[in-house]
Write a structure and sequence with these properties.
heterodimer, A: about 575 residues, mainly alpha, Cytochrome C Oxidase, Chain A, two-stranded antiparallel ribbon, about 65% helix, globular, B: about 375 residues, alpha/beta, Immunoglobulin-like, Cytochrome Bc1 Complex, Chain D, domain 2, 3 domains, five-stranded mixed β-sheet, three-stranded mixed β-sheet, about 40% helix
Chain lengths: ~575, ~375
């Protein structure tokens, strides 16, 4: 490859390497290293995931019997509110953008850190602070927030102190998200390695870029909504009180103006993960690089113009329904382009069934399915039936669980060796994969027909519905049993991590034989990431071409990386040229 | 760092579209046709909304749209998952294969990319047109309503009002009635100072929010007589999950009979007390004067003076019903205030003995309902 044919930007640098911190506090607690911060996000997110998951399990126990006598209604209402709130803001955002984004994006663009490392540290530490605020609501007599994760007024204003804690906690997460968005945008704009033009950027970084745009521009709307709600709760300001000239619908607009794009905050990085994992394990270049990259941007932009599809039967004007429906349908087009491009990536590959690849393959099915049920909900007349029912619960758990979480696990198994220098057990990985996918299907698939038959969501007791539809008891028990498989899966991930950290095989620089820049350096990456900033000549994904990099730290880098024997399932490989 | 010998990649070529591509496509197509026929013609009542439980004209329209989407949704699901599974299997790395084998270096195909952009777009345009036709029919029906009823949602019961009927019908004791075959307009709102609820009849396939300070409407023609559940489907507080009511769809003749009888009964009962005029503040004063000797308004059921404490009269999980076994609705509270109570836990005089005017009763009910 001819270097001169590719314009190489002049690398403006402050080009010296700071020494790594030696004290425990600077190294592991108040670290400004993006890789340590990524691990902090991961540990925090996983802990919150176990807590929010156990709230869900308590709900599933309650729903074992249609009468629902395991806990009282108020406790149940706190459980589903906290489950949703914690999962969205303290699990998904920290795990998907915080953890994967922080670990991978700076490495992929050949940077030594994010643009504002101190801000990055602040962003992370706001997450546990927010969690402390949110959970401390349990200590007061009114208990935790109990008006649903959406906290619609007026019900959220009636509930006492819980709502105030909710507003404060989520405003803090909002600050964290906004700062992270800003930080990542500046990093991607200013700190790409020389030669890494926009069309040579790895697709996970593209997805992180689109996500950062949403984080920066949408989160402020949420903060505004929650600030108004906080004033309504704490100081009786009548923003949302119709008797005093306010409007309860106003809040819903403000809330969904953020919270619809928020779905893309989890799902776009998930798309990015899939776009990295599929080529690596299909040993084949990504199909339709430009279309995948631009469809991320298209989704991010369209995502801002669809919020009212959450509100079709809420009393919005009928003429508003149709434009929002059409814009929502349009999102199906870039999403379809991605799915088809990923399928075409598989075609003609040499596919290795590693744990990350299993999650990525399953993602293609579960996410497509969740996307299709999304079209049903976007269809106004059908939504007038399905809104507020278990069909909605099924839809978003397919998108979030079968989409964002499945892709997160793909990314987790893929980049864990890079973060820690050790391999995870493939056996436990495969077992956790099957537990998760069987659990997901068993839990959420029946919710589709329960919702269609008339089971409303957020019910602590479904006695009346079970009389009209006796099968409901069987299906609810089936869901309750299935959901425990997902808990086992996550526990198994935790065990896998512990075993790997104690006795996992050494990963080496590039166990999977991948081609993006993060795999060109040692695992775990050194404190400064790159001693010499690499020069990028082309897109990374073409496995038949030599690596498009110059100036790599490892001068003996094989121009055609191959997976290490240790990283592949037993018997799957033979020596080169055998 | 170990030094690795350069290992030029070996491409494994693919003939045509891949081994067995045609056969797989045929199988997927057969599966798809079978599934489509099943969706359209099998009585999958437990899975999909179906005619057997559709109870309004809107339900038929919504189910038609639902099935249309399901035909395409099933097809997309089958082909996507089918081809993913097939590709993953047929293009898998074989055991013992050299470590440097790679897939075919195909990274673009403008033709394919145009196809999979244009086809979904066309499909969505067709769906858009179909949706708008159905939407227009539901939102702006051609026939004028022959009956307008009102639904007022409260925490945690529904109130139904009919033209010419004095007073309201309250769930769960009272039921909503509608005539089959006649277009009706249902105006929906929530009580003043109440929260947002939703009025959902699954067999109608329609729901609409009940928002305080705002009137929404559903235009619907029930098509099948029977008894149906009305559920609140917007989270509305502690007892959200037991906020249901019954809807009875009568034949037109039965409905007319019912409404006439209800009007006569309401008129016979004398000037009913209009609970809507009750003022909780005045009720508090009346309570202090007329009730506080026996009842405690600051404590729960067990905080007895003579009779039970009334702080949680409407929201006590341990005593979900009133002492006479009725639900804690304003109507039933009114009933006890009017008639008094004699039962296992004691006795309370009736309104005459207690000297309660209509106004007192309305105010007391408003006050008692406001206690929490």
């Amino acid at each position: 490859m001819d270097v001169a044919a590719h314009p190489v930007e002049q690398h403006e640098a402050h080009d010296h390497i700071h020494p790594a911190p030696t004290g425990f506090i600077q190294k592991y607690v108040f670290s400004i290293d993006h890789k340590v911060i990524a691990i902090q996000y991961f540990v925090t997110g996983l802990l919150f995931m176990l807590i929010a998951g156990s709230f869900a399990e308590l709900m599933r126990i309650q729903l074992w019997n249609p009468k629902g006598t395991f806990m009282d209604y108020h406790t149940f209402n706190q459980m589903f509110t906290m489950h949703g709130t914690v999962m969205v803001w303290l699990v998904l955002i920290p795990l998907v953008t915080g953890s994967l984004g922080n670990l991978v994006m700076p490495l992929q663009i050949g940077a030594r850190d994010v643009a504002f490392p101190w801000l990055n540290m602040l962003s992370f530490w706001l997450i546990p602070v927010s969690g402390l605020i949110l959970f401390s609501a349990f200590l007061l007599p009114d208990g935790a927030p109990a008006a649903g994760w959406t906290e619609y007024p007026p019900i959220s204003i009636q509930q006492g102190t819980g709502g105030i804690f909710y507003c404060l906690a989520i405003i803090v997460v909002g600050i964290s998200s906004t700062l992270t968005g800003l930080n990542f945008l500046v990093t991607i704009f200013k700190m790409r390695a020389p030669g890494m033009t926009w069309t040579r950027m790895p697709l996970f970084t593209w997805a992180t870029f689109a996500t950062a745009l949403i984080n920066l521009f949408a989160t402020v709307a949420l903060s505004a909504a929650l600030l108004a709600l906080l004033f309504a709760q704490a100081f009786n300001v009548p923003f949302f009180d119709p008797a005093r000239g306010g409007s309860p619908i106003l809040y819903q607009h403000m809330f969904w103006f953020y919270s619809h794009p928020a779905v893309y905050i989890f799902i776009l990085p998930a798309f990015g993960v899939i776009s990295e994992v599929l080529p690596t394990f299909a040993r084949k270049t990504i199909f339709g690089y430009k279309m995948i990259a631009f469809s991320s941007l298209a989704i991010a932009i369209l995502g801002f113009a669809v919020w009212a599809h959450h509100m079709f039967p809420s009393g919005i004007a009928p003429w508003l329904q149709i434009p929002f429906m059409i814009l929502t349908y349009l999102i199906g087009i870039p999403t379809g382009i991605k799915i088809f491009s990923w399928m075409a990536t598989l075609w003609g590959g040499r596919i290795q069934f590693t744990t990350p690849m299993m999650y990525a393959l399953a993602f293609l099915g579960t996410f497509s399915f969740g996307g299709i049920t999304g079209v049903y909900l976007a269809c106004v007349p059908v939504d007038f039936h399905e809104h507020g029912s278990y069909f909605v619960v099924a839809h978003f758990h397919y998108v979030v669980g079968g989409g964002a979480v499945a892709a997160f696990f793909a990314g987790f198994y893929y980049w864990f060796p890079k973060a820690t220098g050790r391999m995870l057990s493939e056996k436990m990985g495969h077992l956790s994969f099957w537990l998760f996918m069987i659990g997901l299907t068993g839990t959420f698939m029946p919710m589709h027909w329960l919702g269609l038959e008339g089971m409303p969501r957020r019910y602590a007791s479904y006695e009346v519905f079970a009389k009209a539809f006796p099968d409901a008891v069987f299906w609810n028990r089936f869901e309750s049993l299935s959901s425990s498989l997902m808990v086992l899966s996550v526990l198994l991930v935790a065990i896998n991590i512990i075993v790997s950290l104690r006795s996992g095989r050494r990963a080496g620089n590039n166990p999977w034989g991948a081609r993006t820049l993060e795999w060109m350096i040692s695992s775990p990456a050194p404190y400064y990431n790159f001693k010499k900033i690499p020069i990028v000549l082309d897109k990374p994904y073409d496995f038949t071409q030599p690596l498009p990099y110059r100036n790599l730290d490892d001068e003996h880098q094989d121009p055609y990386p191959v997976p290490s024997e240790a990283a592949l399932p037993r018997g799957a490989t033979a020596a080169v040229g055998a | 760092m170990s030094q690795v010998a350069p290992s030029a990649p070996q491409v494994v070529p693919v003939k045509g579209l891949g081994p067995g591509f045609g056969a797989v496509t045929v199988v997927l197509t057969i599966v798809n046709i079978a599934m489509t026929l099943a969706v359209l013609y099998l009585p999958l009542d437990f899975l999909l909304p179906s005619e057997s439980n559709a109870a309004s004209d809107s339900a038929l329209a919504v189910d038609g749209l639902f099935k249309f989407m399901t035909v395409f949704g099933v097809a997309i699901t089958i082909y996507v998952t089918g081809y993913v599974a097939y590709f993953a299997w047929v293009f898998r790395r074989r055991a013992g294969e050299p470590i440097n084998t790679v897939g075919v270096p195909i990274h673009d195909s403008t033709k394919l990319e145009i196809w999979w952009t244009v086809l979904p777009t066309l499909l969505l345009v067709v769906l858009m047109v179909y949706t708008i036709v159905v939407w227009k029919q539901l939102q702006f029906p051609n026939t004028a309503a022959s009956l307008t009823t009102e639904v007022v949602a409260h925490q945690f019961y529904f109130e139904f009002r009919y033209p010419g009927l004095q007073g309201s019908i309250y769930s769960p004791k009272g039921e909503m009635h509608l005539p089959a075959g006649r277009p009706v307009k249902i105006l929906v709102t929530a009580g003043e100072g109440d929260v947002i609820h939703q009025f959902w009849v699954p067999e109608f396939r329609q729901k609409i929010a009940a928002v305080p300070g705002m009137v929404t409407e559903l235009n619907i023609t029930p098509i099948r007589t029977g008894r149906y559940d009305i559920a609140c489907s917007e989270y509305c507080g502690k007892n959200h999950s037991i906020m249901q009511a019954k809807l009875v769809v009568d034949s037109p003749a039965d409905f007319d009979k019912w409404l006439a009888a209800a009007r006569v009964a309401a008129a016979k009962a004398g000037p009913t007390i209009d609970l809507a005029t009750g003022d909780a503040g005045a009720g508090k004063t009346a309570f202090t004067q007329k009730c506080a000797a026996c009842h405690n308004a600051a404590g729960g059921f067990d905080a007895k003076i003579v009779g039970p404490g009334l702080l949680h009269i409407i929201d006590d999980p341990a005593h979900p019903k009133l002492v006479d076994g009725s639900a804690p609705t304003p109507e039933d509270i009114e009933n006890i205030l009017v008639k008094g109570y004699t039962g296992p836990i004691g006795a309370m005089p009736n309104r005459q003995a207690n000297g309660l005017t209509d106004g007192d009763i309305a105010n007391l009910v408003a006050y008692l309902v406001s206690l929490k």
